[in-house]
Structure formats: structure tokens, C-alpha cells
Amino acid sequence: MRVRGPPLIHLRKNRGQNSMKMWIQRTARKYGYEIRKAPFPGFISVPVFDLALQYLILVRGDRLTLIQVGANAGRDDDPIRPGIPGGPFSLSPSPMSLKNSKQITPQSTTESHSKMSLRQPTPLHCTFIGSHPAPLLLTASCHSIPQLLPNSPVSGRRIWLRSPCQPLASTISF
Amino acid sequence: MVAISVPTARLDDIVLKHGMADLDILLLDTEGYDWDVIQSLNLANTRRRMIRFEQGHMPPKMIGTMTRHLNQHGYSVYYGGYESDSVALRNDFIPSP
Fold this sequence. Notes:
The complex is a heterodimer.
Chain A: H1 8-30, H2 48-60, E1 66-70, H3 95-104, H4 111-115, E2 128-129, E3 142-143, E4 154-155, E5 158-159, E6 166-167, H5 168-171
Chain B: H1 11-17, E1 25-29, H2 34-39, E2 50-53, H3 60-72, E3 75-78, E4 86-90
Parallel strand pairs in B: 1-2
Antiparallel strand pairs in B: 2-4, 3-4
């Protein structure tokens, strides 16, 4: 009688390969690494952050509040900037925060910082706390809360806000 | 090597002082110090709806500890893998109808 399916010898071979593969995967996982089949180039992961950000913008509108701690200064490689192009919000480095950051931690003043074109008035909710390198991490420099002021100038689809951004050093007693 | 003094403050103190306890988004990118920042937060008494952190610089054990900590405080953590940072969303991020 002819049995459908792959020949038995192939099954035994595959079983050996599978057990070896599983052993390698288990061992790697034990040390905190994952070995898996690389996704097809056309595949993309579910963009959890982007979806959540869009949801918050829809739900919270101009009451949205955010704080950034660390390396991102609201411009280059900023995860939040691509999520809100042309929307009601505009992110931009605060001139005051950059100035303070440069004064306090000159090592962290990257090329991109120095090339930033800073707009006036400061757009809203640029909140920038900290900068790397790591030993100089806890440099608090700027804080602002988004506030939609009635007299904010409107430019295209963007609403520019007069932000109450002030350097933390002058508003907080450390 | 030159030691310099810089003013520092706990993030929670800054947030509370400025009335931002119900913060929507907290973005962390502190080159391996994200767990230190999260540990300093009082997650029980304040509401951060979304926390994004950079797991790439952390050892696996630290990622596990931090994930358990966030889970215990009502966050679901979405691992970013090699492609992206990870995201923690509060379990009431989307309120039930």
C-alpha cells in the first residue's frame, strides 16, 4: 500500500533537524537571545507606538501632554515627530532648552543641535529633559505644557503656540 | 576626566510640580538608563498612559525585571525587538465601553 506524504527517511531527517533547531533556539533564549526566521522584506511589524500616538492625538487633542527624557531633542530621530506631521501639534526643540543644555553639558551638543533652526515663538510641548552622554544624563533643561492660547498665530494647518516654556533651572529648586 | 556638578531632579518631582501627574506620553531614550528612570517613578499614584523606552542597551535580565515591574503596575508591554523601542500601555489605555 502506498502511503501519502513524504518518505519516512525524510521525516526522520527532519525530526533531527527540528530537535537540533529547537535546542539551539531554547539555549539562545535561555541567554536572552531569540533566533527566528527573518521576516520577508515586505513585512512590517505592527507599529504599536504610532497607532497609540494617533489614538492619543485623536482622543486628547490639544490637551495632549508628553515628556521626553534623554537623547531625543524633538528633531532628529525623534520617534514622535513623524507621527504628527502637519497636525495640530508641532514639536520643535526649545531654544531655551538647547541653550541651557549647551551651557551645562557642552559634550552633548551634537552637530544636529547646532544646526537646528529655531523658530519663534517656541512651538508647544517641546519638553526636553536630559541629554547624553550617560554620566551627564540628568540635566534638566526645559519644560512646557501644551496650552492652546486664543491668540495663537495660525500658519497653514499648523497652529503655532506661544508656549510657556521656561528653563527648569529658573523654575525648580533642585 | 573632569568632574562637573549639574543640577538634577527626580522626574516625578518635576512632573508633580507642574501638574502633569496624568501624563499622556513619557518617552525615554537614556542610553541604558531607562530602567533607572522608570524605577524612580511612582507608577501607583500617577497615570502615564504610554511609556516608550529603549530596551536595546539593557541586558535581558534587566528587561525582564522592568517588564514585570510595569506589568505589576497595570501596563502591557509591547516588545520592540531589534527594529524599534518598546512601548508600555496602561491596561486602561482604551477605556472599555
